[in-house]
C-alpha cells in the first residue's frame, strides 16, 4: 500500500480547516444566513417607515396649503362646530333591564 506524501496530507488538512471555518466558524455560513434574515427584517421595517413618512409628508403639505384639513381635524378630534351649526350626536341606547318571571 502506498503512503501519501506529506505535502498532500498538509493540503488536505488545510482544506478541512478552511471548510470547517466556512461551515462552523463565527463568520461562516450560519452567520451569513443570520445576517441575510436580519437584512430582510430591516428592509421590511424600512418600507413601513417609508410609507408612514410619505403619509406624514402629504399631511404636512396639506396643512401648509389649506385650512380644510385643519377644520376637519378640529371637528373630528375636538368636536368643534361653527357658530351657526347644531351638533347632533346619536349614541346607542343602553340595553333595557329584562325582567325575569
Plain-language structure description:
There is one protein chain. This protein is mainly alpha-helical. It is built from 3 helices and no strands. It has a domain at 14-78. It has helices spanning 6-24, 29-65, 68-78. The longest helix has 37 residues, at 29-65.
The whole-angstrom Rg is 35 Å
Instruction: State the order of secondary-structure elements, H for helix, E for strand.
Output: HHH
Contiguous low-pLDDT stretches (5 residues minimum) are none
Number of helices: 3
Helix content: 55-70%
Give the overall average pLDDT.
Answer: 83
Strand portion? under 5%
**Shape, principal axes of CA atoms:** elongated
Q: In total, how many beta strands?
A: 0
Overall structural class, as computed from helix and strand content, comes to mainly alpha
| Multimerization status | single chain
Query: How widely separated are the two ends?
Result: 104 Å
Q: Describe the largest sheet.
A: none
Amino acid at each position: 500500500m502506498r503512503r501519501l506524501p506529506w505535502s498532500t496530507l498538509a493540503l488536505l488538512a488545510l482544506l478541512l480547516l478552511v471548510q470547517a471555518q466556512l461551515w462552523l466558524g463565527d463568520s461562516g455560513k450560519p452567520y451569513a444566513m443570520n445576517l441575510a434574515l436580519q437584512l430582510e427584517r430591516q428592509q421590511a421595517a424600512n418600507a413601513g417607515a417609508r410609507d408612514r413618512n410619505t403619509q406624514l409628508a402629504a399631511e404636512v403639505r396639506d396643512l401648509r396649503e389649506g385650512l380644510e384639513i385643519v377644520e376637519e381635524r378640529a371637528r373630528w378630534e375636538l368636536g368643534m362646530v361653527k357658530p351657526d351649526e347644531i351638533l347632533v350626536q346619536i349614541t346607542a341606547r343602553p340595553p333595557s333591564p329584562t325582567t325575569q318571571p
